[in-house]
Amino acid sequence: MELLAVFSPLVAFVIAALLNKQIGDAGCQFVTCAGVILAAIASITLFVDVALHGNAYVTVLAEWVSSGDFSAQWALRVDTLSVVMMCVINIVSACVHVYSVGYMSHDEAKGRFMAYLSLFTFAMLMLVTADNLLQLFFGWEGVGLASYLLIGFWNHKHSANAAAQKAFIVNRVGDLGLTLGVMAIFMIFGTIEFSAIFESAPDYADTTFNFFGYEGHALTIACLLLFVGAVGKSAQLGLHTWLPDAMEGPTPVSALIHAATMVTAGVFLVARFSPVFEYAPDALMVVTIFGACTAFVAATIGMTQFDIKRVIAYSTMSQLGYMFLHSAFRLMARRCST
Q1: What is the C-alpha separation between 101 and 25, in angstroms, rounded?
Q2: Within a 13 Å sphere around the CA of 241, how many CA atoms are in the beta-carbon half?
Q3: Are 9 and 42 in contact (CB under 8 A)?
Q4: How many CB atoms lie within 10 A of CB 134?
Q5: What interhelical angle do 110-128 and 2-18 show, nearest 10?
Q6: pLDDT digit string (tens) for 58-98?
Q7: N or C end: fewer C-beta atoms under 10 angstroms in the chain?
Q8: How many CB atoms lie within 10 A of CB 126?
Q9: Is the per-residue pLDDT at 259 higher than 70?
Q10: pTM of the predicted protein model
Q11: Alpha carbon of 16 to those of 93, 190, 248, 249, 338: distances in Å?
Q12: DSSP 3-state assignment of 250?
């Protein structure tokens, strides 16, 4: 069932991209809508089984990378957090796909647009079902690529091209932090597998780490680096400027990427690594400050906007700040209770 939920959008993308001329725009629309709706139904079934009945598991697909002491499997982690995100992604994406059939009816490249939507959906699913940091990074970068293609879809508009480039470049700044965070995690734990990292996190609660000549708390440094990636992807204060401009893309793109799915990737990353953040109180304080400042500043800026899509963008940014703030408070409370 998890294979159906994750890979249906990929199959739809491949068919729509390779057979666009053979099946036509109507065929592309049918295939992509059917693929995502099928994935949404499978996600709901998984939610009932995993979230309500507690049957979490990991499905190993293949050996991905093996080099010396480093190894990574291609696996799908199906737990409560991932199935909740899968339901959100697939259900929202299914609604956006169906809506796009009518919204893009007068566009000359309807098939290509639907293919890009399915590609984004698959990349986001890869991100939330990852069982190791390398696979998460693959989905993370796939989401960035798909968002670039969708934001700049109307490439005859200079503003759309500029917005797509800005989103791509600003997110690369955050992704540099994520890359360094992945390296730091591997140097500390000797693995990038989530289960091994989370189980051994208490053993490294007092470990120090030399980072560019600075001797600091290992888990705090690693968590802060991961949070830099989250700041970029979730448009938090400092790396937020791409989100309002990204509204230059078609409205279905704004609904799918910039109000519901892609921008929550940063919050998902913090939630996924909550067993590690729990032992890095200074990093949690940074998350709290960033979340609070973003929530206030974005809401204030939103009140001065006259373009409705930019108002929604700043509102989304503000709500993401609340999500980070809430996540940090919950982890602090759990740490205090233990």
Answers
A1: 10
A2: 10
A3: no
A4: 19
A5: 150
A6: 888 888 777 777 778 888 888 888 999 999 999 999 999 99
A7: C
A8: 23
A9: no
A10: 0.91
A11: 16, 41, 24, 21, 52
A12: coil
